[in-house]
Design brief:
By secondary structure, this protein is α+β, with helices and mostly antiparallel strands. Helices cover 23% and strands 24% of the residues. Strands 23, 24, 25, 26, 29, 32, 33, 34 and 35 form a nine-stranded antiparallel beta sheet that branches. The chain has a five-stranded mixed beta sheet with strand order 16-13-19-18-17, with no helix packed on it. The longest helix has 17 residues.
Length: 674
């Protein structure tokens, strides 16, 4: 009996060079490279970084270089040597594949415009209509395709479509476009040598086969494309290398709460100069988080913890910050920094200590000690002093558990003396500008550690009682710039903004319902995630004359099916293209045998009749989240518990619009988040 042949496990990461990579890509990169490291059959490790460079209009060499740099940083030189492949390397072969399909009557040239093709494809509940060009002879199609290749026809005047099944319930199989004309559009690698460019759904399986990819790992939005992937490989099998065909497998993408991971929106932030470039440390791009101070180790641990599944979920950004905090706690030397200084002057004889020996890392003696200067004039954080007798004390009582300095409460300077406030110097508004204090010379105390390595952005510090920081690339000896990676956990929850830790420590969205500090459940209207969308299609429900089946676009590469009881109030055609609002964190439900992923929001008139669907605010793109003015939204991850469902029902009853059509809840206006 012959032994079963084994083949190496080969994966690929295929980014399009039309932007910088972000945190969502980190999960995909680490799954592909990590899978190879764990399961390679022959002991070799191979993951191809392949540029999906099939759209020269949006791609550039800058983006390609940034991708190489980001992947190198994330996986390291042992697993990625900087060498890449590209779809453009196979443009000629892909065109030959297309000609083969044409010769077999499996592809045809369509002269219809883009809008007509979209209409002919039908909807989720309505079959497609064959193109008038669908039965053109192979010989005529080959001539037309030759014209497309030569550049003798205008951009957008023709496309090559695969001939599959216009009645398929899978929209992706309704004669998808395989090639489009982009005349005289320079390509970053091939120049102007090509006038047609393949679509991803066509080039993806072909190039996977050419590169002998074994597992083609994709995010869940490509699950519906898998039959097309397999169709292309099957029909081209006589034309492709004799090798086991690749298998497409899907996993859920990384979604982070309150984090923009849309390339389109990130490009907008950069192009409008809202941020200072793609590596702005506030951005979730890999170059941005690297500059901010995140380490590859942090991202590896984070992606390992969230795991790989086919269940869509939204991860709290605080989870990533917790990993960063744990990671840097082991490696970051400690230091002092004052971000909001309040001057302290010590009265009495000069302190006997002019410097204090302090551990550089209190948990690791191998770091050694550092000497910190000490004198009668020093600065503390403004938040370390609660001004009981000033404006602060009049506006709010002393927070419970506040053990820092007040006019009636002494406190210890870190590793030094206990001090007591004797007088407060104030500005004209009554705010403290200087504290006059006594120190107790008998209370001096201190401890010990050492060690630091120089390299911006990989040089991390824990500024004690503040957080973990990284030295920015624009620092100079005369102007040090530090990026805060993450705050420390705070022992008391009373920060001025009410946010524990002040930087992502407040956890949002448990299955049992979102809760505020101390376990208090958030108000009903703060728990519902309201999202903007655009109706792509609307059709009567096949099993119920009261329902409509709508398909809505709710962000880049994201659509949802929502079943709504609107048939008695609006016609399906009047909904198409309309902007709507929907609740996007309801548990999916089966409605008359069809799964519904959300609820369109509308209002009732005073007599209880239908008052219309709610419209998004001006300027809101599909996928934007809304909040009520002045309300700290605490969205549930998914509203599926009994308490959450009741909260949603109460919310719906109280949702109103004023005479101008402005949506509000108990007088609080609905507006764009942030």
């Amino acid at each position: 009996m012959k032994p079963t042949p084994t083949f190496p496990l080969v994966t690929r990461f295929p980014p399009e060079p039309n932007g910088y990579l972000h945190l969502g890509h980190a999960k995909s990169i680490l799954i592909n490279f990590g899978l190879n490291q764990q399961h390679s059959h022959d002991g070799t490790l191979r993951t191809n970084v392949r540029f999906d460079d099939t759209n020269p209009v949006k791609e550039s060499e800058e983006f390609a270089k940034s991708i190489i740099e980001d992947v190198s940083w994330l996986v390291g030189p042992d697993y990625f040597d900087g060498k890449t492949t590209s779809t453009s390397q196979h443009f000629n072969y892909l065109e030959e594949c297309a000609e083969y399909l044409i010769s077999q009557s499996l592809a045809y040239v369509d002269k219809s415009d883009k809008e007509t093709i979209r209409e002919m494809r039908g909807t989720l509940t309505k079959p497609g209509v064959p193109s008038p060009y669908r039965d053109t002879s192979p010989s005529e199609n080959l001539e037309l395709f030759k014209k497309m290749k030569s550049g003798s026809v205008p951009t957008g005047s023709m496309v090559l479509r695969l001939k599959i099944d216009m009645n398929s319930p899978n929209m992706n199989l309704r004669d998808p476009v395989a090639y489009r004309v982009l005349t005289d559009t320079p390509h970053q690698s091939t120049g102007v040598s090509h006038n047609i460019y393949p679509m991803y759904d066509f080039s993806h399986p072909v190039v996977d086969a050419l590169e002998k990819i074994s597992q083609s790992l994709c995010t869940l939005e490509f699950e519906g494309h898998r039959p097309l992937y397999e169709w292309v490989l099957t029909k081209l099998s006589p034309f492709l290398p004799s090798y086991p065909p690749p298998t497409q497998m899907e996993f859920s993408r990384l979604n982070l709460k309150y984090t923009v991971l849309s390339k389109r929106k990130l490009i907008q932030l950069v192009e409008t100069k809202t941020v200072a470039g793609w590596d702005d440390p506030r951005l979730p791009t890999l170059s941005g988080v690297r500059r901010r101070g995140f380490t590859p180790s942090t991202l590896h641990t984070f992606c390992s913890r969230i795991g790989v599944s086919k269940v869509d979920s939204v991860i709290d950004f605080g989870d990533l910050e917790n990993v960063a905090r744990d990671d840097m706690d082991k490696t970051a030397p400690r230091g002092f920094v004052v971000t909001s200084p309040l001057k302290v002057t010590l009265t009495g004889p000069p302190p006997s200590h002019t410097s204090i020996s302090i551990p550089t890392h209190p948990k690791d003696p191998s770091f050694g000690d550092r000497d910190v200067p000490f004198s009668s004039s020093l600065y503390v954080e403004r938040s370390d002093f609660f001004d009981v007798a000033g404006p602060e004390g009049k506006d709010s009582p002393l927070p419970k558990g506040f053990n820092r300095l007040t006019t009636t409460q002494s406190a210890r300077l870190r590793n030094a003396y206990v001090i007591t406030v004797k007088d407060v110097v104030r500005d004209e508004d009554g705010n403290p500008t200087e504290l006059i204090c006594e120190y107790d010379p008998e209370t001096f105390g201190g401890v010990t550690p050492e060690g630091q390595k120089r390299d911006p952005s990989s040089l991390h510090f824990q500024f004690e009682r503040q957080g973990y920081y990284a030295l920015d690339k624009e620092s100079t000896p005369d102007n040090l710039v530090f990026n805060r990676v993450v705050t420390l956990k705070d022992a008391w929850s009373g920060g001025k903004d009410g946010k524990q830790g002040g930087g992502g420590e407040r956890r949002r969205g448990n299955n049992a319902g979102a809760s505020k500090g101390g376990g208090e459940v958030a108000p009903d209207h703060a728990r519902v995630r309201i999202t903007t969308a655009r109706v792509v299609s609307a059709e009567p429900h096949p099993e119920s004359d009261k329902l409509l089946v709508t398909k809505v676009e709710c962000g880049e590469d994201e659509t949802r099916t929502i079943v709504a009881g609107l048939a008695a109030h609006v016609s399906p055609s009047s909904l198409e293209g309309v902007g709507v609002l929907f609740c996007s964190n309801l548990k999916p439900a089966r409605v008359a045998g069809m799964e519904s992923n959300g609820m369109l929001l509308g209002v009732s008139k005073e007599d209880g009749s239908f008052g219309g669907l709610l419209s998004p605010p001006d300027g809101a793109d599909p996928g934007s989240h809304l909040s009520f003015q002045g309300v700290d939204m605490e969205y549930d991850e998914m509203m599926k518990s009994k308490g959450a469902v009741k909260a949603f029902e109460r919310f719906i009853k109280e949702l109103k619009t004023d005479v101008g059509g402005v949506v509000n809840f108990e007088g609080k206006v609905l507006e764009l988040d942030g």
